[in-house]
Amino acid sequence: MGTIGRAHGAPLQPSTSAVRSREPVATLLKPVGEDESDESDEGEEGEQQQYMFAVPVLEWADPHDETADVKKMYAMVDRLSYLDWGLRTDDEISGKRVAAKQRDTWDGCIVHDGAMWGEAHGENAMRVSDKGPKTAVTSEGYGEATVATVEKLLRLLRRLTRYVPAMADWPEVWNLTADSTFIDVGSGYGKVVMHAKLNLGCRCAVGIECVAKRVEISIGALQGLYGELDRAQLADDLLRGVSFEAVDACSKQALDYSHIYMFDRVFSEWTLAALAPVLQRSSFYIFLSTRKPHVWWGHGFTKIQPIAKIRFKTTGKEGMTAFVYVNSEMIPGLAGMW
Question: What is the CA radius of gyration of the chain?
Answer without folding.
Answer: 20
